[in-house]
Amino acid sequence: MARSAPYQPLLLRILHGVSGILAVGAFFTGFLVYNTFDGRFGKLPIPKFDPIQDLHGTLALCFLLLFPALAIYSFHAGKKRLIQPDSFQQLTQLGRPIWWVSLQRLANTLMLVASIFALVSGRMMKEEWLPTGELDHIWYYFHLLAWLVIGFCLAIHILMSAKVGGAPLLLSMFSWRFIPEDSPMVWYSRLQAWLINWNQNFPELISQWKNRYLFIKIVEGFVIFGVVAAFLLPVFFAAD
Question: What confidence tier does 4 reach under pLDDT thresholds 50, 70, 90?
Fold first, then answer.
């Protein structure tokens, strides 16, 4: 029997779609930057495209601007898609359906961490390093490592989505259909209602956060710190 397409929240689809396009674009242009200016660990015979570094930087900057919203959604409304208290134990159940789900959750969580490393290290790099052959800077090596991890996690994310949900799940992320209560027309009123009841909602939010899995709280704190660092470090500290 064919599986029906699951409904995905519209905000998730928008954040996932836009950030996914930017992340994949930055990933492939990042490889082209490496292929053009480095190539020490292997390269492809691809014609050089001199503005590739500027294109990579533009995509990465757009991803940085969107990343805070993606992170907030991931750690709260999308928390079930991240690592859970029993995920490491479930990873021992090799080959079972829960193993595939847990592997995807681990990859999703690791991808958020790797994105922070990529964003911070990229922000701390100077444009002239690679074109002038300055390849031994620590920030560049951090950037390369983050690039590898993101690529690995992206592959797992896509493969596990196909394995767990099949074509219906993949197609549901590209659907523009939404239910009335998920309409963008009600987003502002829902936010306004939440803010009006701030005195009740904020303590509840804090209580929920305290009861969350310690590991994911550490990851969330690291990601928040990393976002702030990505914006502020280049302002106050010049890379060597």
Answer: low
Whether the Cβ atoms of residue 62 and residue 92 lie closer than 8 Å to each other: no
Tokens of 89: 């134990």
Q: How far apart are CA 153 and CA 106, in angstroms?
A: 9
**196 within a domain of the structure (yes/no):** no
Query: 160-196 burial, b if ≥16 CB within 10 A, otherwise e?
Result: beeeebeeebeebbeeeeeeeebeeeeeeeeeeeeee
pLDDT digits (tens, 9 = 90+) for 6-31: 788 888 899 999 999 999 999 999 99
What range defines the domain where residue 42 resides?
10-185+214-236
- Residue 1, pLDDT > 70, answer no
Q: What is the pTM of this model?
A: 0.89
Residue showing tokens 């914006």:
231
Total domains in the chain come to 1
Q: Does residue 199 form part of some domain?
A: no
Contacts of 240 (CB under 8 A, 6+ apart): 137
Instruction: Give domain status of residue 37, yes or no.
Output: yes
Q: How far is CA 43 from the centre of its chain?
A: 26
C-alpha closest to that of 227 among 24, 71, 21? 71
Separation CA 83–CA 74 (nearest Å): 11
Distances (CA, A) of 81 to 12, 183, 209: 11, 22, 16
Instruction: Determine the average pLDDT of the residues in 126-144.
Output: 94
pLDDT in tens, 34-81: 999 999 998 999 888 889 999 999 999 999 999 999 999 999 888 999
Residue 146 lies in a domain: yes
